[in-house]
Design goal:
One of its GO terms (biological process) is immune response. The structure is a single chain. The chain has helices at 2-26, 86-95, 117-129, 179-194, 243-258, 270-273, 275-279, 288-301, 322-344, and strands at 29-30, 44-46, 62-64, 72-73, 77-78, 105-110, 152-156, 163-170, 228-234, 263-268, 308-310. The protein has a six-stranded mixed β-sheet with strand order 7-8-6-9-10-11, sandwiched between helices. Strands 1-2-3 form a three-stranded antiparallel β-sheet, with no helix packed on it. The chain is α/β, with parallel strands linked by helices.
Length: 345
């Protein structure tokens, strides 16, 4: 009798667990079957986050119903990061038109020196143009920034007659040289977010853009202003991010929030930080190391985990890679979708 009761209890417990799983899956947003690569053969469900992009997003819950990843967040909530269907994301980007009839959607990138800002711009160019591109000058030396001027990067469509209705701007790198440099960086960032910096403005580490400067835009339009702020971090050095740099990024984030500009982050160089991803980029779905780095970054600068996008940029490759493309396209689409909330409001 005791054995029968024990088996009955075990069966009941199994049924309860199955019901919990079914309810969790039922309440998730089906991201549908992935692309033809082995990366895309895993079916995922994602709990849709809340709409508040001003630092109040609910935490994402990723559930893989076919495979149990080796990273668990607080019990049965599993971390999985996987791109959407590459072709669907590419189609979305090709068809995209800014809300409200605006001419262009401006993505403003900034972050520590050597984090991969210019490399991300080059990667976006590469994916959309179908070949490895080097439009923005990138540097592998973490102590030196190659971005000296404020440049707006426009990407031509396949017919080379039209351009995509979004642009990318790359700020000079943030370094921990001294207090004055960080204050100058903050002021320039504020000017850029408000649309006061004209094309080709040369950054000066010791002095911020002034209203008397010929490169100061006195009457910025909605197209000149930043519609989303993207901070880029190096995953391989995130554990060594200096406190003063993190505080500066937090202050810029607060400024963006006051201006009503959404803020997300890109975690680049994930292949350098995570050996399992370097061996196979599809392991981005299950990397314990990557999830720990995302959690560290979230705590350091206050960016919600589901607003941090892991990316592998193109830097030494000679040819494009389907899985790398998928992560880049997913990140770009997410940036546009989050920024659209700002335009819509």
């Amino acid at each position: 009798m005791a054995v029968i009761r024990r088996r009955t209890c075990q069966t009941s417990e199994v049924k309860q667990n199955q019901m919990k799983t079914l309810l969790r899956v039922r309440n998730c947003w089906d991201l549908k079957e992935r692309t033809r690569s082995s990366l895309s053969r895993t079916q995922l469900h994602w709990e849709r986050p809340s709409k508040d992009w001003q630092g109040n997003w609910a935490q994402n819950s990723w559930t893989d119903v076919n495979h149990q990843p080796n990273v668990l967040l607080g019990g049965d909530v599993m971390f999985v990061f996987l791109s959407r269907d590459r072709e669907a994301d590419l189609q979305f980007i090709n068809d995209y038109r800014p809300a409200g009839g605006q001419r262009q959607f401006r993505i403003l990138l900034h972050g520590p020196v050597g984090a991969g800002k210019s490399s991300f711009i080059n990667s976006v160019f590469s994916v959309l143009e179908g070949k490895i591109c080097h439009k923005a000058t990138a540097c592998n030396i973490t102590q030196t920034t190659f971005t000296k001027k404020y440049i707006t990067y426009k990407i031509k469509k396949g017919d080379h007659q039209n351009v995509y209705p979004f642009v990318l701007n790359d700020m000079t790198g943030l370094s921990n040289i001294n207090w004055k440099h960080r204050r100058v960086y903050e002021k320039d960032m504020r000017m850029a977010m408000k649309g006061h910096i004209k094309e080709e403005y040369k950054f000066h580490p010791q002095s911020a853009l002034s209203e008397t400067d010929p490169f100061f835009n006195r009457n910025p339009t909605i197209n000149d202003k930043a519609h989303i702020l993207v901070t880029v971090f190096d995953a391989s050095t995130i554990n060594q991010l200096e406190e003063t740099v993190a505080e500066t990024i937090q202050e810029i984030r607060d400024e963006a929030t006051e201006l009503g500009i959404p803020h997300v982050a890109i975690l680049s160089k994930i292949d350098e930080a995570c050996p399992e991803i370097r061996d196979d980029i599809k392991n981005v779905c299950q990397s314990r190391v990557l999830q720990e780095k995302i959690q560290i970054l979230s705590k350091l600068v206050g960016i919600p985990e589901n607003c941090i996008f892991p990316v592998k940029n193109y830097h030494s490759e000679k040819k494009l890679n389907h899985e790398t493309d998928a992560l880049i396209l997913y990140t770009l689409r997410s940036i546009i979708e989050i920024g659209e909330e700002y335009l819509s409001s």
